[in-house]
Amino acid sequence: MDRKVIIAGFFPPPITGQGLATQRLGELLHPHYDVECVNLRTDEEQLDLRLKGRLLHKVKQYRSAGQRLKQALDHSPGATVFWTAISPQFFGHFRDLLTVLPTFGPQHDVYAVVHWGKFAHLFKSASTALTAQRLSKKIKGFVFLNEDRSEQCAPWISSDKRFVIPNTLDSQVLCTKQEIEAKFTESNHRESLNILFLSNMIQEKGYLDVLHAVQLLRKESAPIKATFAGQWLSTEDKNAFDHYVNTHGLQHVVSHAGIVTDRAQIKALHLASDVFILPSYLIEGQPLTIIEAMNAGSPIITTRLGGMVDMITENQEGFFVPPQSPSAIAEAARKLLHSDTRQNMARAARQRYEEAYSAEYVTRQWRKIVEG
């Protein structure tokens, strides 16, 4: 317990994939080191993640967060720092330069944890290239979620400063082997294929493509049921979703579970599902929901974009589909109607989780960095 580790980032609430990953990092390292967590999230962000404007107020909030970090660093010279909130966005980048980067001194080894798929864009853009290089010189290392994200930054960050450590899961959503075997048994006795979409209800995440795929499958009388779970960002989107369900007579096939923040409930949703679908056409980093699904023994249907390309292997743990292609989603789901195909992929998905995303594996990688 002699070593001190400071984790500076965005912690829940609200519950986001990045926030959960940051919180989980603290849980993994706490048994081995003296861990201090510094929440850089502002009060304003806790109230409304989509709030825009009020620039001066935001600047004050971010400066306050930077001061909290500086106090923690001043009290812990020599601590290893994991900065998990580094931004790939234009305004977020300059926020980091003005409020976070000045707090780091030579007495700390600082590692930036990159959760985003577009981080390399900072070095490519004329407006941020110079400042991104300045930032990288002050950071001892960068931790990426997968090899693809790391290689994208190779022209600007040397190999000795790049590390690859994936996300892992909190204990509340971990599934035991007994729970998974019970899921397989129930699935084999059930007539319908249960699919799950779990994400914020943002069109770019592909929920409408899943809904349209369900309609295509129902038109051919395929035995399928779909559960959607996540927060609506607009009443118009919700109304359009409900209208489609009602118009096409999908009321007994499609359900929406609303906002799900309870981790035990998320686990239950995965265990009740036969396949997880996230056909996002955003450049995702490494969606925790896909790791959750593999942990629960669910085959994956997703797009070959961002971090997803490294998470599964085609025809082993799941299928890749083109963005915005309900027909391709329907075709992939149709293959999983066959119980042998579904169970073989389900077991491969669970094995993939154990080998690449388990807490034991991930903890070892973090400890290698702390202990040099």
Which of globular, elongated, flat, extended, rod-shaped describes the shape?
Answer: globular
Number of strands: 12
Main beta-sheet annotation: 6 strands, parallel
Query: Could you say which structural class the secondary elements and strand pairing correspond to?
Result: alpha/beta
Give the arrangement of secondary structure elements.
Blueprint: E1 4-9, H1 17-29, E2 34-39, H2 43-47, H3 55-74, E3 80-83, H4 90-99, E4 109-114, H5 121-124, H6 129-138, E5 141-144, H7 147-152, E6 162-164, H8 177-189, E7 193-198, H9 207-219, E8 224-229, H10 235-247, E9 254-256, H11 263-271, E10 275-278, H12 288-295, E11 300-303, E12 318-321, H13 326-335, H14 339-356, H15 359-370
Parallel strand pairs: 1-2, 1-3, 3-4, 4-5, 5-6, 7-8, 7-10, 8-9, 10-11, 11-12
Helix pairs in contact: 9-13, 12-14
Give a description of the structure.
With 372 residues, the protein is an alpha/beta fold. The radius of gyration is 21 Å and the shape is globular. The chain folds into 2 domains: 4-168 and 359-370, Rossmann fold (3-Layer(aba) Sandwich), CATH 3.40.50.2000; 171-356, Rossmann fold (3-Layer(aba) Sandwich), CATH 3.40.50. The protein has helices at residues 17-29, 43-47, 55-74, 90-99, 121-124, 129-138, 147-152, 177-189, 207-219, 235-247, 263-271, 288-295, 326-335, 339-356, 359-370; strands at residues 4-9, 34-39, 80-83, 109-114, 141-144, 162-164, 193-198, 224-229, 254-256, 275-278, 300-303, 318-321. It is 44% helix and 15% strand. Strand 10, helix 12 (288-295) and strand 11 form a beta-alpha-beta unit.
